[in-house]
Structure formats: structure tokens, C-alpha cells
């Protein structure tokens, strides 16, 4: 984790499970070393500021509009850029991992799935485990299903849809 990360024990355990899934998929898909590294780095860093307070996140992002729960990805991407990270697929994966992006490469798509499918989450455990196991054989189909499930949850909870989420759904439907 970067020295500027704000991560408690519970969050660190989540991050470790996300990285474990990403690494498992990278091996099963026989991706090249650079891609595997990008996927794992995105996993390690995606929630590096998840436990930061609202003032810090708003100061880092300059965003006074979005809900605070959506700011840790953009804040982490900006911090990583500031310390020299140049891989755009990694930065974009981290920046948009909470809402999705229609412009993602497989790095963003893999992170989005791993963040949702990691086994420590308590909801839909059997369904999510089934989907996680299917990623190596049906990457795009599982991605579409994860987008749909996350979209359904957002609507069911009465939360607003970000423009990025709508664009992603329109891209994969």
C-alpha cells in the first residue's frame, strides 16, 4: 500500500481478496506479465483512500458535488498520478471502479468484477462465487452480468445513477 493510504484492517482484508481474485483470473486467462501486474496493482490501490475522511477526499478531488462514497477512486487515481503512475488503464480502473466506465480496457473491467465478486462480501454468496469462477471462461458475459446486478442494486436502493454508469450499461447491454 502507498504510504499515503488510509486503510483500516477490514478494508485491507477486502483489498487482499480483490487482488487474489484478479491474480487468479490473470493466471487462468494466461495474460501477459504487464497485464497481470496492472490488474494486481489496480486491485492493491483501488481502495487506498476508502477510509479517508470527506474533507480530505473533497480537497484531493476538488469535487463538492458527488456523494462522498464515490470520491475515493478519483482521489486515489490523482494521488497515484502525482507520484508518477502513468499506466492509464490502471488509473482509469481505479478512478471509476465504484461507478463504471464505458471506456475501460480489461483492467477496469476486471477490477470492477473483482471488487463486486470478492468472497468476503455477505450478499448473494453462491451466485457471486459462481460468477467469479466463470470469469476465465466468459469474461465479457460475466462483466455484463456484474454491471446489471450493480445497476439493479443501485435502482432498488433508490440511489441516483451516475452518467458513467448509464454509459457503461448502454455499452454492454
Q: What would you say this structure looks like, in words?
A:
The protein is mainly α and 173 residues long. The protein contains 9 helices and no strands. α2 (33-45) packs across α6. The longest helix is centred in the first third of the chain and has 21 residues, at 9-29. The radius of gyration is 15 Å and the shape is globular. The model has no long low-confidence stretch (mean pLDDT 96).
Low-confidence stretches: none
How can the largest sheet be summarized?
none
Number of helices: 9
User: How confident is the prediction overall: mean pLDDT?
Assistant: 96
Give the distance, in angstroms, between the N- and C-terminal Cα atoms. 35 Å
Quickly give the structural class.
Answer: mainly alpha
Sheet-strand content, in percent, reads under 5%
The gyration radius over C-alpha positions equals 15 Å
> What's the SSE pattern?
HHHHHHHHH
The geometry reads as globular
Indicate the percent of residues in helices.
Answer: 55-70%
Write the layout of secondary structure elements.
Elements: H1 9-29, H2 33-45, H3 54-61, H4 72-82, H5 88-96, H6 106-117, H7 125-134, H8 139-156, H9 163-172
Helix pairs in contact: 1-2, 1-6, 2-5, 2-6, 3-4, 4-5, 5-6, 6-7, 6-8, 8-9
Summarize this entry quickly.
The chain is built from 9 helices and no strands. The chain has 173 residues and is an all-alpha fold.
Attribute tags:
173 residues, mainly alpha, 9 helices, globular
Amino acid at each position: 500500500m502507498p504510504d499515503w493510504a488510509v486503510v483500516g484492517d477490514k478494508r485491507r482484508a477486502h483489498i487482499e481478496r480483490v487482488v487474489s481474485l484478479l491474480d487468479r483470473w490473470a493466471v487462468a486467462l494466461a495474460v501477459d506479465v504487464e497485464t497481470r501486474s496492472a490488474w494486481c496493482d489496480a486491485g492493491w490501490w483501488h481502495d487506498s483512500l476508502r477510509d479517508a475522511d470527506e474533507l480530505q477526499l473533497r480537497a484531493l478531488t476538488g469535487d463538492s458535488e458527488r456523494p462522498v462514497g464515490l470520491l475515493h477512486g478519483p482521489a486515489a487515481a490523482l494521488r497515484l498520478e502525482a507520484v508518477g503512475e502513468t499506466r492509464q488503464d490502471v488509473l482509469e480502473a481505479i478512478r471509476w471502479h465504484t461507478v463504471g466506465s464505458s471506456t475501460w480496457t480489461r483492467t477496469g473491467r476486471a477490477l470492477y468484477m473483482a471488487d463486486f465478486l470478492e468472497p468476503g462480501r455477505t450478499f448473494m454468496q453462491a451466485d457471486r462465487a459462481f460468477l467469479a469462477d466463470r470469469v476465465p471462461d466468459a469474461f465479457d458475459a460475466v462483466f455484463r452480468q456484474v454491471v446489471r446486478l450493480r445497476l439493479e442494486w443501485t435502482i432498488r436502493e433508490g440511489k441516483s445513477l451516475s452518467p458513467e454508469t448509464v454509459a457503461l450499461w448502454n455499452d454492454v447491454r
